[in-house]
Amino acid sequence: MWQWFHKLGSPKWFFGIAGRLMPWLGWSALIVLTAGVVWGLLFAPADYQQGDSYRIIFIHVPSAYLGQSLYVAMAVAGVVGLVWRMKMADTFIASATAVGAAMTFLALLTGAVWGKPTWGTWWVWDARLTSMLLLLFLYLGVMALRGAMEDPDVRARASAILVIVGVVNIPIIKYSVEWWNTLHQPATIKVTEAPSMPASMWVPLLICLLGFHLLVAWLILWRMRNDILLRERRARWVRDWVLAQ
Amino acid sequence: MRSEPRVPVRLQEQEGGWPRAAVETVRREWLIAFRNRQDLMNPLVFFVLIVSLFPLGVSPEPEFLRQAGPGIVWVAALLSILLSLNLLFRNDYADGHLEQWVLSPQPLALLALARVAAVWVTTVLPLVLLVPVLAVMLHLSPGTGLVLVLTLLVGTPVLVLVGAIGAALTVSLRGSGVLLVLIMTPFYVPVLIFGTGAVTAAVEGASITGHLALLGAMLSLAVVLAPLAIAGALRISVSNG
């Protein structure tokens, strides 16, 4: 176990293992997402209240879920980076920030598209929408801080602190905004309760959720490999690898 | 860069330990503040200017001002705090004072807390004391103005403590003013919500103790945790130089 953990600190080892994992992740993401989206959009029954417009949840829910969980994952990486000074932790933060921001933006966008026919408006200042918007701002803040810093070591530790402070604040922001105003329907799928929708709807949703996870893992590994190449560009193994391509 | 007055700094002394160091930090901050009075004025003028833009830009109707006034005052206070926080560690970083802090035997988090407390008293407290005047100009009732002052007294220390983390992170970067606003504003939302929420509750005749209690909870959390984050961020920024 610990040997595996120590290996994670080696960019070269990580680059190799990520390269071997990526085709598997990429193809399975494509297959699972295609299956989930086709099932969800074409074969799942229409909602008795919302009709076909509810089908956007097959994109909306996975992206909203990943937008939130990626920030927490970044905070975990931030702790790992600060405690063990692990290079890969910062590479993960660098790569996950943009993907997380994209997922959060996608959730907001699909939410607006769904809100127009359902609520009759593109945007309401509702608690869940607002906290997602603030989450997007948190991602953009991390990106802005990273962009302003040149020294890689300082950048790594500074963004780790910012992400950790952010993750302490996320529950506070979430609950304060919820107190402030809520209109959004409660979460569709909870781990602790039976889903409030029939199996013909939540099974494709779960498949989409899995597909999004695979897609995001693939994207992040791809970005991490690029980041490693950029950071280690003076290393011998990078030169050998580039020449071999 | 403002001229730094020659103030005796005795942080390295072992006698007296950390309480002495904290007191000296506060004393130094106040001396610097009162010898650069213009720097004390700027956030205040900015605060009043922002507030006066709303009657000009939106509507001077007393009805509108009564409704929007508390929010306007809170947003203006938030912005002027962010503006003045940009300078919080700037001169100390430039003249090497921060390095002495990091090297000093006293806990850095404690020095940071003393520093933030001193800054709150010198730059934010005058702003809060100005609010009754603005409340009259915004046609708020005396009771509403009082509640507004009360929420600002509890809420603004949180803003300064949390904002200081961002100020410590960005102190070594050139032209970081916008960056600080960008990074820190999302963290200010809960304080803003409960601060203005208390005033709205007071206007509607409801109890404000719940809102104040939540603001107080945020304050206690920030007093305990923010100095640690400020200290960590300062160590990083100093190692950057």
Please explain how this structure is put together.
Chain A: Required for the export of heme to the periplasm for the biogenesis of c-type cytochromes. The complex is a heterodimer of chains A (245) and B (241). By secondary structure, chain A is mostly helical. Helices cover 79% and strands 0% of the residues of chain A. The longest helix of chain A has 33 residues, at 11-43. In chain A, 40% of the residues are buried. Chain B has 241 residues and is mostly helical. Chain B has one domain. The mean pLDDT of chain B is 86. The A-B interface holds A 82, 134, 137-138, 140-141, 144-145, 148-149, 151, 154, 157-158, 161-162, 164-166, 168-169, 172-173, 176-177, 179-180 and B 162, 165-166, 169-170, 172-173, 176, 179, 182-187, 189-190, 193-194, 197, 214, 218, 225, 229, 232-233, 236-237, 239-240.
What is the global morphology of chain B?
globular
Major beta sheet of chain A, specifics?
Answer: none
Order of helices and strands of chain A: HHHHHHHH
Strand content of chain B: under 5%
Average pLDDT confidence of chain A is 85
Sheet with the most strands, sense and barrel status of chain B: none
Radius of gyration of chain A: 20 Å
- Counted by DSSP, the helix tally of chain B is 9
Helix percent of chain A reads over 70%
Structural class designation of chain A: mainly alpha
The largest interface is:
A-B, 27 and 30 residues
Strand tally of chain B = 0
Secondary structure: number of strands of chain A: 0
Domain unit count of chain B: 1
The number of helical runs of chain A is 8
Family (chain A): Belongs to the CcmC/CycZ/HelC family.
Organism (chain A): Vreelandella halophila
Function (chain A): Required for the export of heme to the periplasm for the biogenesis of c-type cytochromes.
InterPro entries (chain A): Cyt_c_assembly, Cyt_c_biogenesis_CcmC, Cyt_c_biogenesis_CcsA/CcmC
